[in-house]
Amino acid sequence: MNSLKLLFFSTPVGVIGSGLGGGVELTLRNISQEMINRGHSLQILAPIGSTLNGLPITQISGNLQIVAQSQNRDAPIIMPENSVLANMWEYAYQVRNHYDLLLNLAYDWLPFYLTPFFDRPIAHFISMGSLTAVMDSVIERTLDRFPGTIGVHSYAQANTFSFGDRCRCLSNGLDLSLYQFCLEPQNYLAWVGRIAPEKGLEDAIMATQQIGIPLKIWGAMPDHAYWQTICQKYPNAAFSYEGFLPTDQLQAALGQCRGLLMTPKWVEAFGNVAIEALACGVPVIAYRRGGPSEIIQQGKTGWLVEPDSIEGLVEALDRLDYIDRRTCRQHAEAKYSMQAMGDRIEAWFRDMLALGNREQG
Ligand code: HBI
To answer: Candidates 11, 64, 103: which one to mutate for ligand 1, based on the most atoms within 8 Å of Cβ?
Structure first.
């Protein structure tokens, strides 16, 4: 594929490196690095203060967007004064002729609304399922006019939208060289994620308490009061908070675990943690809900369990040792490497450019 000049837009909810951007930071870093590895040239627009492993960032000033998942379904669009998102797109309009294709990673209204006004192909990689009516309609409007330009991480995520069948499923990818395979684990289990109600940590605590294996917990703790209620609710359970670690430390600790529990209460768009665990050889036990249910191969790389069933988690934990940890690593290498993800992204861009990606019909 001849080399492309690419302009990527980061999420406007946080400085890259703060963790506020959640999975988008990982996705942005991995896609950007892989496109550069393949000889394309790239610029990333991100809020001032963003850093990303030395990748080329143009820092844009302005005020952050509020997070979409805090909105209810009929919430109107909110734009702060001096919006960093608006500033990103004003800058992009000035430089658009230097680029062959633009990739938006923000889950916000403005990028979709502006797409018809740009005489440049714009790809949108959305990071969550359906959250608000106004976002659903602006995404659908974009799809109607520019078919093939909406990417998602999983079919489960796509199916939260009425137009899900018209989205392009790209899954995700990791730099697997950052993850060490561990064959002989210690006798404890892992739970990794933002410690918040929609992530279902309590189910994991109840299940591991029943089976008598200690649970180690890693992730951001945005709400200490919520953590306190959990500690008070399960005074006799063996669990410990191990902090919010950078990838190299997290993977070293995660690899030591017999298994990872994923107990989401919402439709997780993908579940990067699942492929991080597989990369370390760690089997995953997950509710059959959202992205993880498309990652785990039943009985080969982990177990999928009836959503919200503690008993189901306990039964799966009993069968954890049937899983060959080498199969977990092999599966990560086959489907979730930078190479595999890069192939999917390049094919998407190629198809968009072949379509000329202008007004259809
Ligand atoms: N909210 N408004 C808004 N915009 C985003 O780009 C955004 C968000 N909430 C969460 C988020 N991005 C990402 O952290 C997750 O999709 C991973």
So the answer is: 11
The CATH number that applies at residue 39 is 3.40.50.2000
Task: Compute the distance from residue 112 Cα to the ligand 1 centre, in Å.
Answer: 15
Mean pLDDT of 252-259: 98
Report the 10 Å Cβ neighbour count for 196: 17
Whether residue 231 sits in one domain with residue 184: yes
Question: Are 324 and 182 members of one domain?
Answer: yes
Q: Which atom of ligand 1 is nearest to the CA of 21?
A: 14
Q: Pocket residues for ligand 1 (CB within 6 Å)? A: 11, 13, 21-24, 65, 67-69, 106-108, 127-128
Q: Structure tokens of 273? A: 């943690």
Question: What average pLDDT does range 306-317 have in this prediction?
Answer: 98
Tell me which residue range forms the domain holding 241. 176-335
Q: Is the pTM of this model over 0.70?
A: yes
pLDDT digits (tens, 9 = 90+) for 90-136: 999 999 999 999 999 999 999 999 999 999 999 999 999 999 999 99
Residue with tokens 């192939």: 343
Pinpoint the alpha helices (H) of the chain.
23-37, 84-95, 109-114, 133-145, 155-158, 201-211, 224-233, 247-254, 272-279, 292-295, 310-318, 325-335, 338-354
Shared domain for 185 and 327, answered yes or no, is yes
Looking at the structure, do residues 33 and 112 belong to the same domain, yes or no?
Answer: yes
Residues 78 and 140 in one domain: yes
Q: What is the DSSP letter of 60?
A: E
Helix, strand, coil percent values for the chain (each to nearest 5): 40, 15, 45
DSSP code of residue 198: G
Question: Same structural domain for residues 344 and 225?
Answer: no
Q: How many domains does one find in the chain?
A: 2
Residue reference for tokens 């290498």: 333
Same structural domain, 236 and 131: no
Q: In sequence order, which residues have a C-beta less than 8 Å from that of residue 203 and are 6 or more positions away?
A: 261, 263, 308, 310, 313
Q: Read off the pLDDT of residues 22-39 as tens digits, 9 standing for 90 and up.
A: 788 889 999 999 999 999
Q: Identify whether residues 211 and 156 lie together within a single domain.
A: no
